[in-house]
Amino acid sequence: MRSRAAILHDVGGPWSVEEFELDPPRAGEVLVEMAAAGLCHSDDHILKGDMSAPNEVLRSLGLPTMFPTIGGHEGSGIVREVGDGVTEFAPGDHVVTSFVAVCGQCRWCATGMEYLCDAGIGTLTPGMPTDGTFRHHTSEGKSLGHISKIGAFAEHTVVAADSLVKIEPELSLVPAALLACAIPTGYGSAVNRGGVRGGDTVVVIGAGGIGTGAIQGARINGAAQIVAVDPVEFKQKSALRFGATHSAANAAEALDLVRDLTYGVMADAVVVSPSLITPDDVRDALKLTRKGGTCVLTGMTSQLTHSVKLNLQDFILMNKTLAGTVFGSCNPRADVVRLARLYQTSQLMLDEMITRRYRLDDVNDAYADLLNGEIIRGVIDFGIS
Description:
Helix content: 25-40%
GO molecular function: alcohol dehydrogenase (NAD+) activity; S-(hydroxymethyl)glutathione dehydrogenase [NAD(P)+] activity; zinc ion binding
CATH class of the largest domain: Alpha Beta
Shape: globular
Catalytic activity: a primary alcohol + NAD(+) = an aldehyde + NADH + H(+); a secondary alcohol + NAD(+) = a ketone + NADH + H(+)
Protein name: alcohol dehydrogenase
Distance between the termini: 22 Å
CATH topology of the largest domain: Quinone Oxidoreductase, Chain A, domain 1
InterPro entries: ADH-like_C, ADH-like_N, ADH_Zn_actinomycetes, ADH_Zn_CS, ER, GroES-like_sf, NAD(P)-bd_dom_sf
Number of strands: 18
Domain Enoyl reductase (ER): 13-297
Order of helices and strands: EEEHHEEEHEEEEHHEHEHEHEHEHEHEHE
């Protein structure tokens, strides 16, 4: 069948909205008609080369090329067709995507760490996770990748059944797209990795989609004081709507604020979620973290950043924890449904996070708005729900 998608042909972009050819799903695969796709910084990092490399560079190293590829990993949609052996989904089912595939059988899945599933490791390697071949093709017949094995910036896509989570049909599909990345990543960073509990003081650095998810996670789990740190005034004000009790423009300003709020104790948990984490962000975040506290790095960093400088003696003797996380250390098959329930009971705000809806053809304008700090979460609305 023919469909349309936003495609990256190499590092630097722009996104090119064009028709492509899509094969039917094979064994273990599902054809999804997309309802909505969230605009995440991760896809822009691929465009800019923070998480990718130009085709010419990869070829010179004898490595498989990544481009052309369909963008998007945060999405929701409706199942239209299933391949052989797929029993957990049927046409008409409503689903959200999981950019970390979950096989359910590897060591990590078996021990409750689906977010580290072996099947999800090759998320940026082109080809289907089922057999390594391609279902997406350019109009000229060239193999076409799909970011995170999802390709949510497409009207239709074929994904592995392992990359989908079924949701209740009464759940609105457009806000449900945020359950595919922004919410579990942010919420889980605060709650699962940061261990936020009632009465805690929490700092969230970066108040975009992920940061807003972290702020809500801290609020829902009883944090007494939540400080949102962001240089954009619009995002500072927005954070207060989602549960932040205070805001600051930068880490230096937050340091004085948190010191005053906690009588010098500092924050129980710090979630670092700017668009791109720098070594200075890590250093500053650890200064904001109390003795025995946890600092969680949930944003992405440039692949050229290999080390950070920190006060090692303070880090050791103050018993601090510096933690990484992927997908907010969430287990998609269980946690997406749990988070959806929080939304249905009006505890988790999803609709309010969507600052603006866009058409697929407006994807470049949408990312310009994101990079200019004008939106919390933008969503491509395909108009099927």
